[in-house]
Batch of 2 targets.
Target 1
Amino acid sequence: MKNTIKVERARHNMTQAELADKVNVTRQTINAIEASKYDPSATLAFRIARVFGVRVDDLFSLEEEE
Amino acid sequence: MKNTIKVERARHNMTQAELADKVNVTRQTINAIEASKYDPSATLAFRIARVFGVRVDDLFSLEEEE
DNA sequence: TCATTTTGTAAAATATATTTTACATTTGGT
DNA sequence: ACCAAATGTAAAATATATTTTACAAAATGA
């Protein structure tokens, strides 16, 4: 799972903490997802996409994990 | 999280077990997701959407959970 | 340079997804 | 009615996401 959250945050200039607030998770969760440390739940993926007004498919992509 | 997996399966006439196979999870996982017993991971959501050739956004939707 | 905000990271605890095994119910065809 | 395939479901085990607390490093502005 890759994603362009960092880019969207820049575009909307929003901090990790602000985004975390809006989607009801902790800052660390956003940080970890941005860094691809682990994948979000589908629900969280949708919430984040909604904040930026983009489709989940445009924000995330499946980088062939085995 | 709602989804139209059952419809897509019908359209492609594919069984839960077949779909499970294609996306590398168990039949029970597909069954539970169809029944909205729990939400899939984003990765799984993408894999399922890919099988049907649709966008994640078209297959799943966020039915305002609190 | 100093102070403040933002980001990176980590370990332990908790919540949730997924597997495994197993059985019951429904559905479709004959 | 019978048989087989498909679906529904459940409990315990395991994997993975997310929280909490806490600190270190980097970035930004004055």
Target 2
Amino acid sequence: MSPDFYARPVLEVARDLVGCVVRHGEAAGRIVETEAYHETEPACHAFKGLTPRTKTLFGPPGNAYVYRSYGIHALLNAVAEPEGVGAAALIRALEPIEGIELMRERRGLEPPESLCSGPGKLTQALAIGLGLNDSPLIGGPIALELRAPDGRDPVVVTGERVGITRAVELPWRFCDASSRCVSRPWPTAMRTRAQRMRRAA
DNA sequence: CATGGGATTGACT
DNA sequence: GTCAATCCCATGC
């Protein structure tokens, strides 16, 4: 993954990350869900400007932005857009590929589709903590690989972002409709698809 | 210095 | 469906 990949509009980065692989140590997973955040809209931490917390967001593209959510969970983002623009793609769900037993130990016994089906779940499964904030995604402890080795193409659908109270109408969520590991609630496009399959069954 | 609010999750009614 | 857990940081006095 080259630095140029991240120095692009965050909507493109978020969309193109679906189908890529995140690796930390012995655990790896295929990205099946992302969301885009940009300084020009109020749901983004960078909306308020440069503070100690948002310093990473305004820094070089291709770094990890890891922050604590609800006092409990660490959430993983990839910083996007040129340096000086506050934007990042939130990685919200993975399909486990490698180190599944390790993920089970870290999360407690779980069916594989529940190990990484949420932004707080996947950081726990991959042992990604706040100490990795601002670390590079190229040549750093967290690695992002361009496409899953199985060559499977994601079926990318968009939807509204989850868990926010402002700018809720923006369709800046990207999901792989062919995966069962996407977090709830599923976007309308996927629910429709599931209903069709249920009717057919 | 005190307060309030989350880019969530899991347990429970 | 509801709700608590838990902590960093932004804001205001």
